[in-house]
Structure to design on (695 residues):
């Protein structure tokens, strides 16, 4: 059978990765054993037993590693999308929530913790961010890949950037039936390959097993081979990813985004991209391809990546890197000290349980007698009997001084383990001789400084995970979608609509725009939550009234109260907090604010109109009253003229008096009218009488 050239190339990649990485992977496997407590080989245990020493294991690697793993568990890293332009600032918040949704659906934070454990112990872990082919689950998925099953180009940087790394592949044992069900058209080819390789192994095949196969050997009687396992009818196919230089036409846009123009896109879409682009650039770049094969059978031929990016979907989590570019973890640097602690503690116990005998000849005559003396001398309640006069010829030395020296050196090794790993007593919470608060902070900071490179690498890996998730979202989320997301600060759930169509466009369209992804620490310990809640309560005391309901709502959501949800539902209306605002996005909140301002403006205008009407009514009322008083004055003047005419023949004094009386009355009433006082004849008479009395 003629083997295709591309298949020979893939097989060469697999063989190269296995051979070149075998040495460092073997060391990483030993580091895993150190963490598990297997810190001595069977040959070493037997050798020490022949010397009378029971070799014990005091696992100092386990707590040192767990301290670092615990720090990662309580200080989780959140992924946040940042917009490249101001117009994408609001949609970037939606992208951040979408990334968190994918992480929640895939248990991504737990998987990252698993990869981080691989980063700390063997030195390298892997997270796969790709496309889920199962329609029952979220299409953009995050999966964990065991370090023993992942390989990459050993001559490239361990971070496996697409422009420098030739290939990465995943090789896992699967049942032959399951593989045939996934690729039914290859069923006969797989049967033939399996039968051929199984017979070949039985006759002549021999090989060196790698670490993943070491695990399998503990679970089976017969040893398998790199491609087939005849005992359980399993095969070990390869999913390989690799790059090929390809010339591509790109369209760049004002927001910084770059899109590829290829024949797979609709012609109308290509025309719109060209029309709205800032520039068209033709460049040769590494394009990502993938394939699946098993020995001589190609299961899925060369296929361009459909993940929305041209980076490897395997995200590496790297601990430390040696001078050859190979990864290693924390146990590598403390392995020798931990083994020394085991041996010195075993030696000290042996010395304390045995005694040295120095004797002259003659106190015993046979080997049996000598053995009896040695046995009795090393017994807890032994009794040594020697010949007469021989008591001065035998000397039994205790080994306590030698044991003390062993314990002293052992303590130095334990101290070195703490210094190298950063797991000192203060950071671990043990009681130490440090009593000053300043000194305690310095010792704990020293621990953080020692482990800082590990967490710096972790942030880089989590950032790469966010970038790949974001690219997958922009590639796959093209239709309407409703997300239930959890607020990371309060733990409250809310719903978010993606690609919501309305008249005039699409709301929350994540396929547009370009984002930068940043990683932030999000401590989740109870102490930190309580401190944050207390801080919010202090803000409540100094905040304006309109802000207090929102702060109180956040504080209650952060509190660990029983039946918290039911309690919040009852107290929110009392705080004047609108629960519907939780489900609103930025545009809806902006629209609501505009409506509130417009309503307030209309209410103010209506109030001003009512006030103007009240003033106008009051003026009309005064005008009518003034006209009435003027009419009364005119009537009084007319009566005065008539009275003057009627009394024309009377005496001059009487006429003058009457005329003066009417004129004074008229003047009094006119003065009262100008002051807005309605006064009649009776009031004038009363006022005149009072005036006469005063005279």
């Amino acid at each position: 059978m003629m083997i295709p050239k591309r298949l020979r190339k893939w097989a060469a990649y697999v063989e190269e990765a296995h051979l070149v990485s075998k040495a460092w992977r073997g060391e990483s496997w030993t580091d895993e054993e150190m963490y598990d407590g297997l810190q001595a080989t069977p040959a070493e245990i037997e050798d020490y037993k022949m010397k009378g020493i029971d070799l014990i294991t005091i696992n100092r690697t386990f707590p040192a590693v767990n301290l670092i793993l615990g720090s990662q568990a309580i200080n989780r890293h959140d992924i946040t999308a940042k917009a490249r332009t101001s117009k994408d600032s609001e949609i970037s918040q939606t992208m951040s929530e979408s990334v968190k949704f994918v992480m929640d659906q895939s248990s991504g934070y737990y998987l990252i913790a698993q990869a981080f454990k691989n980063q700390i112990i063997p030195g390298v872990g892997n997270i796969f961010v790709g496309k889920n082919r199962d329609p029952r689950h979220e299409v953009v998925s995050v999966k964990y890949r065991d370090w023993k099953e992942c390989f990459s180009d050993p001559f490239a940087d361990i971070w496996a950037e697409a422009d420098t790394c030739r290939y990465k592949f995943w090789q896992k044992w699967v049942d032959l039936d399951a593989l045939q069900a996934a690729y039914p058209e290859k069923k006969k080819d797989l049967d033939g390959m399996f039968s051929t390789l199984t017979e070949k192994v039985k006759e002549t095949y021999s090989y060196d097993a790698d670490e993943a196969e070491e695990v399998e050997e503990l679970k089976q009687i017969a040893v398998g081979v790199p491609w087939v396992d005849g005992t359980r009818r399993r095969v070990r196919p390869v999913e390989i990813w690799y790059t090929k230089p390809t010339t591509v036409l790109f369209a760049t846009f004002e927001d910084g985004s770059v899109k590829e123009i290829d024949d797979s896109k609709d012609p109308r879409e290509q025309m719109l991209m060209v029309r709205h682009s800032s520039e068209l650039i033709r460049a040769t770049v590494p394009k990502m391809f993938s394939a699946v094969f098993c020995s001589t059978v190609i299961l899925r031929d060369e296929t361009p990546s459909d993940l929305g990016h041209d980076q490897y979907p395997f995200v590496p989590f790297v601990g430390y890197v040696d001078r050859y570019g190979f990864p290693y973890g924390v146990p590598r640097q403390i392995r020798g000290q931990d083994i020394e602690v085991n041996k010195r503690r075993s030696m000290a116990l042996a010395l304390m349980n045995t005694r040295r005998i120095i004797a002259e000849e003659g106190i015993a005559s046979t080997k049996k007698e000598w053995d009896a003396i040695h046995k009795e001398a090393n017994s807890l309640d032994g009794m040594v009997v020697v010949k007469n006069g021989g008591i001065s010829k035998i000397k039994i030395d205790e080994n306590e001084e030698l044991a003390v020296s062993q314990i002293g050196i052992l303590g130095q090794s334990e101290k070195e383990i703490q210094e190298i790993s950063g797991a000192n007593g203060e950071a671990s919470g043990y009681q130490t001789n440090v009593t000053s608060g300043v000194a305690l902070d310095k010792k704990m900071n020293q621990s953080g400084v020692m482990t800082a490179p590990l967490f710096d690498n972790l942030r880089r890996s989590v950032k790469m995970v966010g970038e790949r998730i974001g690219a997958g979202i922009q590639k796959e989320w093209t239709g309407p979608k409703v997300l239930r997301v959890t607020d990371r600060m309060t733990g409250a759930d809310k719903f978010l609509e993606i690609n919501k169509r309305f008249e005039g466009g699409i709301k929350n369209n994540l396929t547009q725009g370009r984002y930068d992804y940043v990683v932030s620490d999000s401590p989740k310990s109870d102490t930190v939550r309580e401190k944050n809640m207390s801080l919010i309560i202090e803000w409540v005391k100094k905040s304006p009234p309109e802000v207090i309901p929102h702060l109180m709502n956040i504080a209650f959501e952060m509190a660990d109260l029983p039946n918290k949800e039911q309690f919040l539902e009852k107290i929110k209306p009392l705080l004047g907090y609108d629960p519907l605002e939780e489900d609103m996005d930025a545009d809806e909140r902006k629209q609501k604010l505009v409506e509130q301002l417009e309503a307030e403006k209309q209410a103010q205008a209506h109030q001003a109109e009512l006030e103007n009407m009240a003033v106008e009514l009051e003026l009309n009322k005064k005008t009518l009253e003034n006209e009435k008083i003027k009419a009364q004055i005119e009537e009084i003047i007319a009566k005065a003229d008539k009275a003057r005419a009627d009394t024309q023949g009377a005496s001059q004094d009487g006429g003058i008096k009457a005329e003066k009386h009417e004129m004074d009355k008229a003047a009094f009433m006119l003065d009262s009218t100008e002051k807005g006082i309605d006064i009649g004849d009776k009031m004038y008479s009363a006022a005149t009488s009072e005036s006469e009395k005063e005279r």
